[in-house]
Design goal:
The chain is α+β, with helices and mostly antiparallel strands. Helix content is 26%, strand content 29%. It starts with 13 loop residues before the first strand and ends in an 8-residue tail after the last helix.
Length: 232
């Protein structure tokens, strides 16, 4: 056998994953960042991520890194794109498969090679390590596209929410302002929310009904309206 044909003679670049984790605190769209404990870029803020192990897929690697670096055990996760610039990592040739994740309010804890982990307002993100600024920008654009076609916003809201909380989330993601009455009427006509008997009191003078997302109604709506785009 000719050893020159052996696949082990070919260079094997390292494969990594990076995760853009979006959250919502009821007022602001946020992104979860970790402070790097090791070089390169020690002390800098970055997206959670790391190298893929030999016995796992890139998605399994992304979820593992999420657990190890932030303490988040599960999340809605979707593959974004691959980043392969030659000099994106000063250590070696590293190709990264990026994901973005949506998580509800949860406890986070720094671990593994992260010195710290914390939420940042999407408009107050510091300079990031590696090419993570570009990855974050791409993830935000992807979220803005997807929110028109899929109910991804409900992955960020609590199970019970007010219409005002829902509207504010969409305004934060899309960076626009909606007329309150028009927004409510358009959402109501979709028939994908259940109004609950419970209410909350956002102001001393007024109660607000709580709603929940109806997954089955949304599924039926999508089947009936092929190519549906949610506009406001």
């Amino acid at each position: 056998m000719n050893n020159s044909n052996n696949s082990f003679n070919y260079p094997h670049p390292a494969i990594a994953t990076d995760c853009v984790i979006f959250g919502y605190d009821g007022f602001n769209l946020q992104v979860l960042l970790i402070e790097r404990a090791n070089e390169p870029f020690k002390g800098a803020w970055a997206l959670p991520g790391g190298f893929v192990q030999q016995n796992e897929t890139v998605e399994e690697g992304a979820l593992r890194e999420l657990r190890e670096e932030t303490g988040i055990d599960h999340a809605y996760i979707k593959q974004l794109k691959t980043y392969s610039s030659i000099d994106r990592d000063p250590r070696e040739r590293v190709i990264s498969v990026a994901f973005y994740a949506l998580v509800k309010d949860c406890e986070i804890s720094a671990g593994d090679d992260a010195a710290n982990a914390r939420w940042f307002n999407i408009n107050e993100v510091p300079q990031l390590a590696f090419d993570h600024q570009a990855i974050l920008k791409d993830a935000l654009q992807a979220l803005r596209r997807e929110i028109h076609f899929e109910p991804v916003g409900f992955e960020l809201l609590p199970d019970k929410f007010t219409i005002r909380e829902l509207q504010n989330l969409y305004e934060q993601v899309l960076n626009v302002e909606f007329d309150r009455r028009n927004f409510f009427n358009k959402i109501r006509r979709l028939g994908i929310l259940n109004r609950l008997k419970e209410s909350t009191r956002p102001t001393p003078k007024k109660d607000a009904f709580l709603f929940e997302f109806n997954h089955e109604a949304y599924k039926q709506f999508k089947e009936k309206h092929n190519g549906f785009r949610m506009e406001f």
